[in-house]
Amino acid sequence: MLTFNFKGKTAIVTGGSKGIGKSIVDTLTNHGCKVVCTSRTNQGNNSAVQALDLNCQQSIADFTEYVLSMPKIDCFINNAGINIPESIWEMQGTSLASTLHVNLLGPAAILQAVAHKMRSQKHGRIVNVASIAGV
């Protein structure tokens, strides 16, 4: 039987207020992990909630500052993302820009801060969640 023990560990889960992210947050919390989840709407579950809009530079900067102030980060789960169901010939510039910001550029900025933190503590795990919709 596979067992998990996350007691004393700290994780960040982006997009943790609903769907797959909420399930990840609930599972980690149920196994003793202190979880910080992000949400655009500040809807929480069994964790601390931090506002994060990956389509907003100021929000990303604020969250990055928060990440760097955390005492430690054992695990970062990059789960937030959007899917705008438009074909390439229907896609407007704003849809493309939002998709790139939320799914690539915003997470990359946060990953840099997380990686910096993990490097200084000489420990950490990063999990990137992707969708088959990207194919």
Short description, anyone?
The chain is of the alpha/beta class and about 140 residues long.
Care to describe what's here?
The chain is an alpha/beta fold and 135 residues long. The chain contains three helices and five strands; from the N terminus they run βαββαβαβ. The chain has helices at 19-30, 57-69, 93-121, and strands spanning 10-13, 34-39, 48-51, 75-78, 125-128. Strand 4 (75-78), helix 3 and strand 5 (125-128) form a beta-alpha-beta unit. Helix 2 runs parallel beside helix 3. It is globular, with a radius of gyration of 15 Å.
List its salient traits.
single chain, 135 residues, alpha/beta, five-stranded parallel β-sheet, 3 helices, 5 strands, globular
- Secondary structure category: alpha/beta
* Beta-strand percentage range: 15-25%
Distance between the termini: 34 Å
Structural Rg: 15 Å
Poorly predicted runs: none
Biggest sheet strand order reads 3-2-1-4-5
Number of DSSP E strands: 5
User: Helical element count?
Assistant: 3
Shape label: globular
Question: Approximately how much helix is present in the residues?
Answer: 40-55%
The biggest beta sheet reads: 5 strands, parallel
Mean pLDDT: 90
Order of helical and strand elements: EHEEHEHE
